[in-house]
Amino acid sequence: MIKFENVGLRYGVGPEVLSDIHFTLESGSFHFLSGPSGAGKTSLMRLLYLGIRPTRGQMAMFGQNISEMNRYEMAKIRQKIGVVFQDFRLLPHLSAFDNVALPLRIQGKKEKDICKNVEELLKWVGLGDHMRRLPHTLSGGQQQRIAIARAVVTKPRLLLADEPTGNLDDEIGYKLMILFEQLNKTGTTIVIATHNEQMMDKFRHAKLVLNHGELSVETPRIGKIKKILNEVF
User: Fold this and answer.
1) Nearest residue to 156 (alpha-carbon basis) of 67, 40, 48
2) CA distance 108 to 102
3) How far apart, in whole angstroms, are the C-alpha atoms of residue 217 and residue 210?
4) Which residues, 6 or more positions from 103, have their beta carbon under 8 angstroms from its beta carbon?
5) Is 65 helix (H, G, I), strand (E, B) or coil?
6) Residue 228: is its pLDDT beyond 70?
7) pTM value?
């Protein structure tokens, strides 16, 4: 589904923030994206949701070379991607219901189907009693759940989430991770950027680890072996 070959990224004339990134994500895979602050996680996520293009190297998504796409083709690819931004990016003049319904309306779905899907999803994330409220009247955690519901309502082929449980209590955070797991089992490829070591230990998926703009891939088995070796030595 996703292939990076020697991808580099710099902003303006500054130094590269990502250097020689090389990895492949298979369809239906689940990865955590981790690394210290300033490692380049946000920049890599921007590349993945096609917010920017790489400065150099080859990047392909859904079998298409990104560098060869025009704006129309990029827009079609973005419709296959759900994104949970760290700052939520909810539309302030729309209710919780209408924020979540927006991607379905853009796709031209029937209003009857939209109502059913959106209501079920908002109830599932614990916001069934807040569907008609505007974002500014809700807490940060509630806004985050709206953003997550909006990202998954179309059942995207690729879901990207930047610290999706950061403002949530443990119970809600765990419940949303189960939602991501269920989506993954239906075939959605998932990448979650997080600092939450407990969550990564509980849901043992492969990790994309960024450090100083360079990336390595760590499987759950390798991660466990490294932990044991560190404890022994």
Assistant:
1) 48
2) 10
3) 9
4) 82, 150, 153, 154
5) strand
6) no
7) 0.85
16: tokens are: 């590269």
Tokens of 93: 């003049």
Reduced to 3 DSSP states, what percent helix, strand and coil does the chain have, rounded to the nearest 5? 40, 25, 35
Largest CA distance in the chain: 61
pLDDT exceeds cutoff 60 at 152: yes
Q: Kind of pairing, strands 189-193 and 158-162?
A: parallel
What is the Cα–Cα distance from 92 to 159, expressed in whole angstroms? 23
Mean pLDDT on 165-186 = 84
Give the three-class secondary structure for 27.
coil
Residue 110's pLDDT is 95
State the burial class of residue 136 (Cβ atoms within 10 Å of its Cβ: 0-12, 13-18, 19+). exposed
Beta bridge partner(s), residue 95: none
Distance between CA atoms of 64 and 159, rounded to whole angstroms?
A: 18
In which element (H, E) is residue 133 found?
Answer: none
Q: Are 207 and 197 in contact (CB under 8 A)?
A: no
CA-closest candidate to residue 190, choices 168, 201, 175, 205: 205
Q: How many CB atoms lie within 10 A of CB 132?
A: 9
Q: Which residues pair with 8 in a beta bridge?
A: 56
Q: How many CB atoms lie within 10 A of CB 122?
A: 23
